[in-house]
Specification:
By secondary structure, this protein is of the alpha/beta class. 35% of the residues lie in helices and 27% in strands. The protein has ten helices and twelve strands.
């Protein structure tokens, strides 16, 4: 049986880790390289670094941050934020990323998924889907840090991305992000039922029970931020608790 991966997420702005609710009210949470090194010691399986203002500011994720984190840790790194073309993805991989996450640029030009998968392999190509419930009753893709409602059905978009060569989906519930209300299980089930790709659940985790429910809904990996950054759980403590609840963990 495959183990469930635990992935601390470092949302970065101006070289510092920040955390808020629905990308608003951001507060400082520390140094990316220092936090990543600590999480590696605690037993994290991967680290995700997402530059939360790169797309809005019209720039790429800061390569210096990626290099600084890579110098401190050997864990797989998924990097996202402002990746709008192949050259930017290549720069991130050269700086130390193992996987590159794309979101807004892929929605605006879906061929980017094909190009990245063809050039770097599906194992390096992560599609980030930020989804919110809408008045029409389906999960709608949102982009540009949640500021743009696209009208695109998240389930249909996941299917298309899988066909184009995405190797993994980082699935964030916009409605739950930072709320500590638990992952959106209906959203997870909808995407898991549509594609055969690994799904990283993101948005809303506050405790181990939330994570158990996400795995039972079909998630392959669990991403969280606040519960680690502000000392509520260490990765090791969380994994031990998940193991006692019957989850397969690498400990």
């Amino acid at each position: 049986m495959l183990t469930t991966r635990i992935i601390p997420c470092l949302d970065v702005r101006d070289g510092r880790v920040v955390k808020g609710v629905k990308f608003q009210g951001l507060r400082d949470a520390g140094s990316p390289s220092e936090l990543a090194a600590e999480y590696e010691l605690q037993g994290a399986d991967e680290i995700a670094i997402l530059d939360v203002s790169a797309t809005i500011e019209g720039r790429g994720a800061q390569l210096a941050t990626v290099r600084a984190v890579r110098a401190q840790v050997a864990l797989p790194l998924t990097i996202g934020g402002g990746v709008h073309d192949i050259s930017r993805a290549e720069s991130l991989l050269e700086a130390g990323a193992d996987k590159v996450s794309i979101n807004t640029a892929a929605v605006e030009r879906a061929d980017l998924i094909d190009e990245m998968s063809s050039r770097f392999g599906c194992q390096c190509t992560v599609l980030a889907i930020d989804a919110a419930r809408n008045a029409k009753g389906f999960f709608e893709v949102v982009t540009r840090s949640g500021s743009v409602r696209t009208g695109i059905d998240a389930v249909a978009w996941a299917r298309e991305a899988a066909q184009r060569g995405a190797g993994e989906i980082l699935l964030t519930s916009w409605d739950r992000d930072g709320t500590r209300a638990g992952y959106d299980l209906e959203l997870i089930r909808a995407i898991v039922g549509a594609v055969k790709l690994p799904i990283i659940a993101s948005g809303g985790a506050a405790n181990a029970d939330h994570m158990v429910m996400a795995v039972r809904a079909g998630a392959s990996a669990l991403l969280a931020a606040s519960i680690f950054h502000f000392g509520e759980y260490s990765v090791a403590t969380l994994k031990q608790e998940l193991a006692t609840k019957g989850m397969e963990m690498r400990i």
